[in-house]
């Protein structure tokens, strides 16, 4: 399916569980954090260039790993939550091929517009299998047991209610299938935390400042401090009901990826 236009979730009743009212899903915008929505909308135009610059291109490798851990395969129907400008959705699209279907969901219309533009600019045929959906990670507009694999890149740390986000992932994932959640690692090793903070203060914020986005990237440090450690993420996923969980530290412990099997 080719969907180049953005679809607000309340316009897609076919994906809702039978019996669930559409109006419940219409309310998503009220419940999401306006501040974070504004933040991500503001950084959308430069988000990709900044990612490349700040990670020296390494985020592409980590995203490939995340997609690989999701177990997505040809013909699958898969979801990328907090898709932003679509990096993980594009990688998923290559995995599932034209027989498959990818949904990229984000609450920032600006981010989705960038994703949609990138999709139009690329001639790779399989990218036609991606549709972009405006919606809230805390109130996913899909019926239960719907997806064969789910990814979330640098999204969980940013949502207001992490438990609720994991519950929603669990709900819409088919039994036996995997969710792969990539983010900064809140390390148990004090030295890793020190390195992360030094890099944010001395590299990330100065570079972001040159783009006029100092405040937006300063938020990164507190969001990591307030995030969950790998162990805590594993415990949370188990408590929500996942049967098997494994947290992988990557990039020398600076990043982490939770793989949870329903
Ligand atoms: C740091 S970006 C990551 C984008 C992309 N996944 C990547 O790895 O490049 C985080 C994204 O999460 C989205 N986001 C944050 N909270 C959300 C929520 N509650 N529901 C949907 N999207 C959300 C933001 O709009 C933003 O695009």
Quick tags:
single chain; alpha/beta; Rossmann fold; eight-stranded mixed beta sheet; 8 strands; 19% strand; disordered N terminus; binds S-adenosylmethionine
Describe, in plain words, how this protein is organized in 3D.
- This protein is of the alpha/beta class.
- It has a single domain, classed as Rossmann fold (3-Layer(aba) Sandwich), CATH 3.40.50.
- It contains 11 helices and 8 strands.
- The longest helix is centred in the last third of the chain and has 21 residues.
- The chain is globular.
- The site of S-adenosylmethionine has 20 residues, from α3 and α6.
- Keywords: Chloroplast, Methyltransferase, Plastid, S-adenosyl-L-methionine, Transferase.
- This is 2-phytyl-1,4-beta-naphthoquinone methyltransferase, chloroplastic.
- Its EC number is 2.1.1.329.
- One of its GO terms (cellular component) is chloroplast.
Share in helix: 40-55%
CATH superfamily: Vaccinia Virus protein VP39
Q: Compounds present?
A: S-adenosylmethionine
Largest sheet: 8 strands, mixed
Name the average pLDDT. Answer: 87
Count up the helices: 11
CATH topology: Rossmann fold
| Number of separate domains | 1
As a whole number of angstroms, the C-alpha radius of gyration is: 17 Å
Shape: globular
- The CATH C-level name is Alpha Beta
- Strand order within the widest beta sheet: 1-4-3-2-5-6-8-7
Give the name of the CATH architecture. Answer: 3-Layer(aba) Sandwich
End-to-end Cα distance, whole Å, is: 27 Å
The proportion of strand residues reads: 15-25%
Low-confidence stretches: 1-5, 9-32
Sheet/helix structural class:
alpha/beta
Number of strands: 8
Can you write the helix and strand succession as a string?
A: EHHHHHEHEHEEHEHHHEE
Protein name: 2-phytyl-1,4-beta-naphthoquinone methyltransferase, chloroplastic
Main location: plastid
Subcellular location: Plastid, Chloroplast
Catalytic activity: demethylphylloquinol + S-adenosyl-L-methionine = phylloquinol + S-adenosyl-L-homocysteine + H(+)
